[in-house]
Amino acid sequence: MTDCTLFTGAQLTDGSIVDLLVNDSRISWIGPMGQCPTSHSSIISLAGHVVTSSFVEPHAHLDKAFLADRITNPSGDLMGAIRGLEAVRSTITHDDIVDRAMRAVQLMSRNGVTSIRTHADTTISGGLSSVLALLDVKNRCSHFMDLQVAMLLEWPVTGPAGKEHQALARDAISAGIDVVGGCPHLDPDPRGAVEFLLGLATDTGLPLDLHADENMRSDSSDLEHLADIVITENLSHQMNASHCVALSTKSEIDIDRVSEKVAAAGITVTALPQTNLFLQERGVSSNPARAITPIHRLQHAGVVVAAGADNLQDPFNLVGRGDPLEIASLLMVSAHVTAPEALQMISTNAHQAVHGATNSLSVGAPANFVALPAANLRESIAMGPPDRIVVYGGVVLDNQIRNRK
Ligand SMILES: [Zn+2]
Known about the structure:
Elements: E1 4-11, E2 17-23, E3 26-32, E4 42-45, E5 49-53, E6 55-60, H1 78-88, H2 94-110, E7 113-122, H3 129-140, E8 146-153, H4 163-175, H5 190-204, E9 208-212, H6 222-232, E10 239-243, H7 252-265, E11 268-271, H8 273-279, H9 295-301, E12 305-307, H10 324-334, H11 339-346, H12 348-355, E13 369-373, H13 377-383, E14 389-392, E15 395-396, H14 399-402
Parallel strand pairs: 1-4, 6-7, 7-8, 9-10, 10-11, 11-12
Antiparallel strand pairs: 1-2, 2-3, 5-13, 13-14, 14-15
Helix pairs in contact: 2-3, 5-6, 6-7, 7-9, 10-11, 11-12
The chain binds zinc ion.
């Protein structure tokens, strides 16, 4: 008898009830309940569970996780959070980052996440401390989590003042980061910053993930400038733009024009509604904008739009539970997407943004899935039930496995 496990009675998101056979680390058969033609060595019942591809967190800041009670952000906005963090950065040690990041990784794993892209502060005052700590975390959790570390390069990266940051970026690449990233919208020369960071990514062959247009100014154009360069130079490179909330302040004609360019350039976009609703439009009482990436218009143009949580209980977002279903629920309320669309954004689309290819619950695919105790998909998003069954590489994860190493 082969060493394989039959997961029985799983409800797919379309309501059908199936069995799944997992052989080694892959799904080898899916079909009607009770009709698996192959022998199996063990059976696990998923009766009463909705089963979906595991979740992907496309945009985290694990080096900042759980700092909410140690840093103040009196203004409550983005710059207040940045200043608050900078004031205490010298007190944050390697072990401190590792401990908090591992707590966050384990929390997300219990909630059904099997892949995370985390950004790592790369600053003059902190040097490579976040990069090195998160590369350490990547190694510690590799048996239950696929973790990518993206450089989040401090600004400016342009002009004479940018030379020191450019050198720091090269050090981070030498240290082994997986993804190039930065914040063009905070640079005195946003267009120059886009060009520098894109050049760094294409020169090294690493994917690019920008914090793009994270403001509510209609003239902010990081995303459009990136798409223009990619189209003009006919580049083929894995690229993601995170936030892009300024796009929602433009006219519908301009949103559609930019969206069509982004689709043509093959850039994925990651919406981060929880943190942007927290940070943007502080103190605006009359007609505050929602600070939501224009998901529908981007998707209409053909852009793959993912969604993530961004910050987890830090000065950039005091709340958050490390649960993609919390983000899916928020998307349904604030961005008016359907339950299946919300699920796609936190699973298959997020996988595309992080890995450059989609994932699915299909024969031959890696056995990475989550079983949610709920009557249907909508209820699972609404309730965010605990006690989820999380399968990574064919293995049902438990805390003993997660605490190994
Ligand atoms: Zn971020």
